[in-house]
Design a protein that fits this description.
The protein is of the alpha+beta class. Helix content is about 30%, strand content about 25%.
Length: about 300
C-alpha cells in the first residue's frame, strides 16, 4: 500500500560493532561507520566470520560491511564479491528493461489449500491451484519488476543468494486476503519484518493479478492495471538501507510503478508523461490535498 508497513533493520545488525570492545586485528567498518578490531577467519556464504582477541567469534553479513572490507575479503581468495552488487550508481540510466520469459517455474507443493511454486527470485504460495503455466505468466511481472529495480542505478535492491526467494502469498478470495493482513481498499500489501535475513511477505488477492475464474479453471485479464502491485513489489525488493528514508522508499516505488509496463518490459524512456500526469492531477477529482500546479 502507499503507506508502507514499518520496516526496521535489526538492532543487532546495526549496533553490533559499537557494542563489542576493541581487540587485536585489522579495523572493520560497517555501513553505519561503526568499527571493530578483529581478525578475518573465513567467508561463510554471504557472511564474514571474524575473531576478536579474546577468542569470541563474530559473524557479519557482507552487505553490512564497507566496500573496503569487502575488497579485503576478496583479496584473501575467498571468492567474495569485491563490492556490493547493489552499488551500481555509475551504471547508465536505462531506457527500457526487458525480462526474458524463458525462466523456469518449479512446482514445490500441490496439496489442497496450499500450492507452492518458485521462479528464479520468488516463491508463490497460493490457497487455490493456479498451476505452473499460470504462475509463469504471472511471474513475468514479478521477475520483470525485480530486474527493473536491480537495473536502475540507485542501489535499490539488496544483493542476495538466488536461493533466498521473495515470498508472495496469493489469495483466491479477497476476504482471505484481509484475514491474513491485507487492508480494505488495497490491491496488495508488503508486510515487512525485523528478523535478519527475512524478506518479508507480499500479499496479493487474485483479482489484483487479473486472475479470474472461468468454469473450473482461471484466466488472466490482460487489461488489469498492475500499478499498485508493482509499487508494493518494489518495497519488498528494496535494500534495508533504502527503506530507512521514507521519501526515497515511497518515491522510488512510485517511480517504478508509474513507468509504462507491458509483457515483461518497463519503458523508462517514456515514463515522464505518466509521472507528470500523476503529480499534476493530485488535488483534482476529489483525490485530496492541494494541487501542485500544472508545471512539473
Amino acid at each position: 500500500m502507499k503507506t508502507p508497513a514499518r520496516n526496521c533493520l535489526t538492532a543487532g545488525a546495526l549496533c553490533f560493532l559499537s557494542l563489542l570492545s576493541p581487540a587485536e586485528g585489522r579495523t572493520w567498518t560497517n555501513t553505519q561507520g561503526k568499527t571493530l578490531e578483529a581478525e578475518f577467519v573465513k567467508l561463510d556464504g554471504q557472511k564474514a566470520v571474524l575473531t576478536r582477541a579474546g577468542g569470541q567469534t563474530v559473524t557479519i553479513p557482507l552487505n553490512q560491511l564497507s566496500e573496503v572490507d569487502r575488497n579485503f575479503i576478496a583479496e584473501q581468495g575467498t571468492g567474495a564479491p569485491p563490492s556490493n552488487p547493489a552499488d551500481n550508481y555509475k551504471q547508465p540510466w536505462p531506457r527500457t528493461v526487458k525480462c526474458p520469459d524463458n525462466f523456469k517455474v518449479e512446482t514445490i507443493k500441490e496439496e489442497k489449500g496450499e500450492y507452492i511454486y518458485e521462479t528464479p527470485h520468488f516463491r508463490f504460495i497460493c490457497d487455490a491451484k493456479l498451476g505452473a503455466g499460470m504462475i509463469k505468466r504471472l511471474g513475468l511481472l514479478f521477475e520483470a519488476t525485480h530486474l527493473a529495480n536491480k537495473t536502475l542505478p540507485i542501489g535499490n535492491i539488496p544483493p542476495h543468494d538466488d536461493s533466498a526467494k521473495f515470498p508472495a502469498y496469493l489469495y483466491e478470495k479477497f476476504s482471505t486476503y484481509l484475514e491474513n493482513g491485507g487492508l480494505e481498499g488495497t490491491a496488495g500489501i508488503f508486510l515487512g519484518t525485523t528478523r535478519p535475513g527475512d524478506r518479508g511477505r507480499i500479499l496479493v488477492p487474485f483479482q489484483s493479478l487479473g486472475v479470474k475464474p472461468m468454469g473450473s479453471t482461471y484466466i488472466i485479464d490482460r487489461d488489469k492495471d498492475s500499478t499498485t502491485l508493482i509499487h508494493e513489489l518494489t518495497h519488498q525488493l528494496m535494500s534495508p538501507q533504502a527503506k530507512q528514508a521514507s521519501w526515497f522508499c515511497e518515491g522510488s516505488a512510485e517511480y517504478v510503478a508509474m513507468t509504462p509496463y507491458a509483457g515483461g518490459r518497463f519503458n523508462f524512456g517514456a515514463n515522464r508523461s505518466h509521472i507528470v500526469s500523476r503529480v499534476t492531477e493530485y488535488g483534482k477529482k476529489n483525490t485530496g490535498g492541494p494541487r501542485p500546479g500544472g508545471r512539473f
